[in-house]
């Protein structure tokens, strides 16, 4: 018997079947839709009302951040750092993310977000330990409430949701802010994290830094969505689209989203439209997949230059302030240079520490093998001693 032949359905009427019973949208999608174009403050009338102290603080952090990026890249050339995914051009996202959070909140960074961690107060050398290949994370995530810099794409997102949801269940006043790239939005973890976050109304904010590329893959090959911010609607959370090089605009949107999450309003997805000025890492040649002309158009929209225009228009970029900002950035770079040039003392056996609370049998075997090899290397050296 088919559905059409079921008892009661045999009465033929000429009327077309009506809609499914009781159907209506579960939430009104209109308020969840993102901004029609990237939200901006710099260069608009609204910028005139921005607090001078905040603008100067953001600017000083941007200048420090740029200097940190150039110094870290130089360290890769000197063989002192294995790899550095530079955030040059994306400093506005990094600084605004760090400053939007309270100390009690948590930051969940990706490999490109060392600068956000440093702007949040992490020791600049500790922030590079993983990228030097010295140690799993290099810092205590609990000390600054910064999760480990995450290399597997988007895996930090479900972690952020889990932490935020758990905090809410425990009654802790904690918001999690997770950073992810445009490429990371194609991962299953992105979908699972956003879905759970919205269903649970977890106090979490997702900041997608759309820098145009996932290594050599441009955004057009990554997604057919109108924008990455539009994905928010499908999960039932608001989406925001922001100029990712406009630091005060980002700071405002992120701060609002963090506040909303804190008062139980649930998650927000923010897409920051920005650009990766340097190659993916020092191991990549970006000239193979993009033109210099494209890079130049983004250099003209540099986050530091945008801020300088605003500060100058407001008479805030005095010679004294500019010099003090430059000096602060140089001190940061000199300290980084000096400490990264010291050879770290490492115990190869630490490879096996902190991987699992209880070592698996494979790890125990591998640890024993390494121990034996290290001991064998020691023997000739000991025998050579008088
Ligand atoms: C699960 C996973 N798949 C693939 C990679 C290799 N990989 C490293 S970076 C990257 C591109 C990521 O691009 P995006 O998310 O846009 O971040 P961006 O590097 O631009 O900051 C890829 C594919 C990875 N690290 N993890
Ligand atoms: Mg990208």
From TrEMBL:
**InterPro entries, sorted:** Alpha-ketoacid_DH_E1_comp, DH_E1, PdhA/BkdA, THDP-binding
Q: Which cofactor does it need?
A: thiamine diphosphate
Answer yes or no on keyword Ribonucleoprotein: no
Q: Which residues form the Dehydrogenase E1 component domain?
A: 71-343
Identify the Pfam families for this entry.
E1_dh
Please list the GO biological process terms of this entry.
Answer: branched-chain amino acid catabolic process
For this UniProt record, give its keywords in alphabetical order, as a comma-separated list: Oxidoreductase, Pyruvate, Thiamine pyrophosphate
Where is the stretch described as Disordered?
A: 1-30
- Read off the CDD domains from this record: TPP_E1_PDC_ADC_BCADC
Q: Does the keyword Amino-acid biosynthesis apply?
A: no
Protein name according to UniProt: Pyruvate dehydrogenase (Acetyl-transferring) E1 component subunit alpha
Recorded source organism is: Streptomyces gilvosporeus
């Amino acid at each position: 018997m088919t559905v059409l032949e079921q008892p009661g359905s045999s009465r033929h009427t000429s009327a077309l079947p009506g809609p499914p019973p009781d159907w209506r949208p579960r939430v009104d999608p209109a308020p969840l839709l993102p901004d029609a174009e990237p939200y901006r403050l710099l260069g608009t009338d609204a910028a005139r009302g921005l607090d001078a102290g905040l603008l100067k603080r953001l600017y000083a952090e941007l200048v420090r951040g740029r200097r940190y990026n150039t110094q870290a890249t130089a360290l890769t050339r000197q063989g002192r750092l294995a790899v550095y995914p530079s955030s040059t051009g994306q400093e506005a996202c990094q600084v605004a993310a760090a400053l939007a959070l309270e100390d009690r909140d948590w930051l969940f960074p990706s490999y490109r977000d060392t600068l956000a961690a440093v702007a949040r107060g992490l020791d600049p050398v500790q922030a590079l330990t993983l990228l030097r290949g010295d140690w799993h994370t290099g810092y205590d995530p609990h000390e600054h409430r910064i999760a480990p810099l995450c290399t597997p794409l988007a895996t930090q997102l479900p972690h952020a949701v889990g932490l935020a949801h758990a905090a809410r269940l425990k009654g802790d006043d904690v918001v999690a802010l997770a950073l992810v790239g445009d490429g990371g939005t194609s991962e299953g973890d992105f979908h699972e994290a956003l879905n759970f976050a919205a269903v649970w109304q977890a106090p979490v904010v997702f900041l997608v830094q759309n820098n145009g590329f996932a290594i050599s893959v441009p955004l057009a090959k990554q997604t057919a969505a109108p924008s990455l911010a539009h994905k928010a609607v499908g999960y039932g959370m608001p989406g925001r689209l922001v100029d990712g090089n406009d630091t005060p605009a980002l700071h405002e949107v992120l701060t609002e989203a963090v506040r909303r999450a804190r008062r139980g309003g649930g998650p927000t997805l923010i897409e920051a439209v920005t650009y990766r000025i340097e190659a993916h890492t020092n191991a990549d040649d970006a000239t193979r997949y993009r033109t210099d002309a494209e890079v130049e158009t983004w250099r003209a929209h540099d986050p530091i230059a945008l801020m300088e225009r605003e500060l100058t228009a407001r008479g805030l970029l005095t010679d004294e302030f500019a010099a003090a900002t430059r000096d602060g950035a140089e001190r940061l770079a000199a300290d980084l240079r000096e400490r990264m040039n010291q050879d770290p003392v490492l115990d190869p056996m630490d490879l096996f520490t902190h991987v699992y609370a209880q070592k698996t049998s494979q790890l125990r075997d591998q640890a024993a093998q390494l121990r034996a090899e290290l001991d064998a290397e020691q023997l000739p050296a000991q025998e050579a001693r008088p």
